[in-house]
Structures are given as C-alpha cells and as structure tokens.
Amino acid sequence: MEVRLENLTKHFGKTAAVENFSAVLDSGELTCLLGPSGCGKSTILNMLSGIIPVTSGKIWFDNRDVTDMEPADRGIGLVFQNYALYPHMSVMENIAFPLEIKNVAKDERKERAHEMAKLVHVDNFLDRKPGQLSGGQQQRVAIARALIKQPQLLLLDEPLSNLDARLRIEMREEIRRIQLETGVTSVFVTHDQEEAMSISDSIILMKLGVLQQEAQPQELYDEPVNEFVADFLGTPPINKVFGHIENGGIRIDSGPLCKLSGLENVKEGHKVHLSIRAESFLVNSSEPVMDARVVRVFVMGKEKLVYLKLGDFEVRAYIDSDTELKAGDRVQLGLRRKGVFVFDAETGERIR
Amino acid sequence: MKKLKFSAILTYLFLILGAIIMVFPFFWMITGSFKTSQEVSVFPPQWLPKSLYFGNYKFAFETAPFARYFLNSVLVVISSVTVCTFTTILGSFAFSRLRFPGRSVIFGALLAMMMVPFEMLIITNYRTVVQWNIHDTLWALIIPFMSSIFYTYILKNFFDTVPDSLYQAARVDGCSDWKYLWRVMVPIAKPSLVTIILLNAIASWNSFLWPMLATSSATVRTLPFGLYNFVTEGGARNEVMMAAATIVVLPMLILFLFARKYIVNGVARGGLKG
C-alpha cells in the first residue's frame, strides 16, 4: 500500500511539531523516519496511526483518505519502544488479542497466532508471560501482535531503543527479514543513523518538524542536500572546516588554500563550510589540493586514523595502513570526488 | 560469626515477645470462650479449659440473635464492598485515562473532601438517611458506602503507572474503553484491587459508630453493635462475652490469614491504614 502525506502539519498549542510535511512512502518498502529527538518523527508516526489528530493536511492510504479515521479502522499494526505487551497475558494471548477483539473464532485465533509466532521465532515461549522473556523476545512478540491482523501498514516507533547493542543489531536484521517476508509497507522511526542506513529502502531525514531530505540510504550519505544532513550521517562524524572563497578555491581560516573545482560561480570572499568525510582524504596524492601537518596517528589494523591540522581546525582521516606517517610530518593532501561538500555558511545549503 | 548469631537470637527474642503480646488476647479470648464460669474465675488463672465447653456459645446464640447479626453483617459487607469496588474501578479509570473538561478540578475537589473526617459526615449522612426514609434498614448501612474517594485515589494512582502505550496498542486493535478496562487494566491491577477489597471489607465489618446511629432495631443490627448491645444488656459474664467476641472476630481472622500477603503488600505500598 502506498502512503501519501500531503502538507501534514501538527501544532501542540503554539509550538509546531511538524510543519508542512509531504512525502510518499512506496508500497512494500521500509521507510525510516530519522532525526534527532524532538524533530517530529514520532509525531508523524502517531498521526499515521491516528493516535493523535492532524492540525492540517491529508494522509492517504492508496486512494483512501484516512486523515480523520479512527486508529482501529486504518488497518495498521503498531510496535512500541517499550513493547506495550499486556503483562498478565501469555505470549499466545498477547499475539491473539487483536483477533479476540474482532471476535474471530477461537480455533482460527490459535492457528493464526501460531503462524505469527513461528514467523517471529517465539513459538517456543507461547505459554510464558512477557515478564519471563528477554527484551528482544518481547519485541518479537509485539511485532507478531502487530502483524496478526495482516495490516496494510506496519508502524515501528523506535522499536530497538530499549535493547542492548548486540541485540539491537540482531533485531534490526530480524525486523528487516520479517518485513521482506511479509512484504508489508513499513515505517520505522529511529534517531540512530546507522540503524536507519542498514535497514531501510528509503530514509526521510527531519529536523525541527521539517523534512530535510528523502532518499535511499546511500544517496543520502553521498549527496546530502544541506549541512544538517551531512552532519547527521556517518561515523565518525563528518569533518568540518570553516573558510571563505578565494581565487576559486577555499581559504581555510588561518590555514592553507584548498584548490577545489566547481566554485567558480561563487562570489569572492563568500563564507563557506567545507565538510569532508574521514575516508575522503588522500595522503601524498599526486594531485594535492592543500598541505597539512600530522598531529596524531592511531593504528586501527585494517587502516590508520590520522589527526591532521588544517589552519584552526583538526580533522580525522582514514588512510591506508601501509602509509608510513608520524606526528609532525607534513603531507600533501588530495581529496576524493565523493564525500566532499561545500555549504553556504549562512544558510547551510549545498553549493555545487 | 558469633556476633551475627547473637544478634539473630536477639531479633527473634524481640519477635517472639511481640508475637506473644499480639496473640495473647486472642488466645485468652478463644480459650476463655470454651471455659465454664468456674474455670474462668479460678485463681491462679487456668490456661486451658479442661474440656471444650460449648455452653457459652449456646447461651450467646440463645439470648441475642447473633445469627441474625451475622447474616446482616455479611449482607452489608458483601453488597457495599461489591458496589464500592465497581464504582472505584470506573472512577479511577475515568480520572486516570479519559480526557474530559474539568477533570483535574473535579479530582482536586474530591481529594479536598477526603480531608473531612468521617465523624463530621455522620450528622449530614444521618439527616440524608432519615429524609430518604431508609434509616433503621440495611440500606442505611449500605448506600452511604457505595463509593469511596480514598480507594478511588489509590486505584487511580496505580492506573496512572500503566503505560499509555498499552492503551494505544489496544485502541489500534479496535478495543473499546470498556473492554480495555476489564480485559487489561483490571487484571493488571489485581493485587491493588484485592488489597482495596480486603481493607474495605475489614473496615465495613468492624464499623460501629454509623450502625449504632443509623439503626435501632435488633433485626438490622450488625455484629459489632450487636456485641456491644449484648454486653450492656446481658450483664458481665466474661466467658459468654468471650464467646460472642469470638463470633465477631473469627471471620476476619480467617480472611486475614488467607489474604495476609495482599494486606501487607497494600499497606507497605501505599502507606495506608485500614
């Protein structure tokens, strides 16, 4: 089912949680709503589920306008961060509860609950209470409960945030497997960029209630439209140096002139931010764009992490483990084509 | 090691001493109820009766309608506790989950009313009961206790701790408020509810002042007031008084033994007194 959000706006009193948000979620895909806390991603999810009403705008499920529809009539499944399992019911009863409400016959209820339990791999714990399960198992039960009604849309609200690091990776792979197996259109809310990158078909990155960019994970990483997007993605965080345009290149504050192409149309003296991913530096390149001094070198095994001094700034660069470097060395730096972005210092917009 | 052992012995000594102080009156009451009048009055006192003598119970039941009192007590406790529990559940849910205008104002007003001591309410309650023409009937003992702000407050506090996401999950599945309340909230709140029911039942069973005022005929007397009446009218025969007191206390004693865990839990949790 295709989900369309048209100019969705939500105000809580005077504060705008979501502002004029439009997006299309493709059928059968898993879309991540990504952003720092307070960016409105959970608000959008709750509007999709119908738990909170919209201030203005429309929500379409295919050709159905569901904007003012009751949650129960929308045909959705909902998974919460804290699992929201009924503590007094067994796993079996929890999974079957949505069918119980719909007055489905007991035998069918049991059969379908079994099927679901098998899908999420909890069929060995059907008689246990949620309190006797681990966090990961509880979340599996919650997913089974959300899917048993065969919803058209599965909404997951930070489902992995309460799990420890190892389980989180296991469960995100599980969620992806279950989503692909069932083919259900899914929306996944998270503030963890790595989680979003690894799990989704498409990512919507948000900031303060406003959509920043909607793209496939790799595209979001490679072609950020503005500085916020570039800053948000990547581990370690992208390097940032400030400077201004000089002779078609960038003069880094109290540092070298970085000879970049493609800046010919920018006004001389214009203040810019240069963002470079750690893996985009080339040390001792044949086409150097600037020089820098090595501050520290960390051996990581498969590569080296080098701290370089560029004018007022220190940047982190991953380089080949064969390259011999020590603190104090001067190096000629080249830059790859990928992972180097220039942003307007005032607006944060990308300069191409 | 030795020190630890010593402190343990000391602890148990204190506990045993406390237990003796607490249990002795009950022991004296129950054994006394089976003694003949000679056995009661011998000096030095005799610990146990020579044989189980039921004459005191027989006498008590013959001179005062204890069976009637007992039945009245049971009727009043069961009906007032049942209705009160029901209204408490509904009220708590409304104040905890439903959004309606004036919710916090109304709840605040109710809490303020809780500060009014029961003894103050007795006069107005009495006037109401007389106006409704139900004084000196069992209704007068039941109707004023069909709701309780205190228990509503306790249960609401528990309902507040149940995460909102449970409610939302149920709503997405199409669960009505009514069904959510009985299928999810009430089962989760079972320990709290049992505590409330027990405390309420004990308070209702033991209540004395209100039944004394609101009723006068023997046919609608409950046990505590019946006992009082029996003692004042029947003269001071210790062994018979013991038998009558045993009749009054025994049901609650049995209830307490069975539900001890819940009562202690409830008192420990809310710091509340019965």
Give an overview in words.
The complex is a heterodimer of chains A (352) and B (274). Chain A is α+β, with helices and mostly antiparallel strands. Chain A contains eight helices and 21 strands. Chain A folds into two domains: 3-232, P-loop containing nucleotide triphosphate hydrolases (Rossmann fold), CATH 3.40.50; 239-351, Nucleic acid-binding proteins (OB fold (Dihydrolipoamide Acetyltransferase, E2P)). Chain A starts with a strand and ends with a strand. The mean pLDDT of chain A is 90. Chain B has 274 residues and is an all-alpha fold. Chain B has a single domain, classed as MetI-like (MetI-like fold, Orthogonal Bundle). Chain B contains 14 helices and no strands. In chain B, α11 (190-206) runs antiparallel to α14 and α13 (223-234) packs antiparallel against α14. Classes of the chains: A alpha+beta (352), B mainly alpha (274).
Which helices and strands, and how do they pair?
The complex is a heterodimer of chains A (352) and B (274).
Chain A: E1 3-12, E2 15-25, E3 30-34, H1 41-49, E4 56-61, E5 64-65, E6 76-79, H2 91-101, H3 106-119, H4 135-147, E7 153-157, H5 165-182, E8 185-190, H6 193-199, E9 202-207, E10 210-215, H7 217-222, H8 227-232, E11 239-246, E12 249-252, E13 257-258, E14 271-276, E15 281-283, E16 290-299, E17 303-310, E18 313-320, E19 330-335, E20 340-344, E21 350-351
Parallel strand pairs in A: 3-8, 3-9, 6-7, 7-8
Antiparallel strand pairs in A: 1-2, 1-4, 4-5, 9-10, 11-12, 11-14, 12-13, 14-20, 15-19, 16-17, 16-19, 17-18, 20-21
Helix pairs in contact in A: 2-3, 2-4, 3-4
Chain B: H1 2-33, H2 37-41, H3 55-63, H4 66-97, H5 103-114, H6 118-131, H7 138-142, H8 149-161, H9 164-172, H10 177-188, H11 190-206, H12 209-214, H13 223-234, H14 238-270
Helix pairs in contact in B: 1-14, 3-14, 4-8, 4-11, 11-14, 13-14
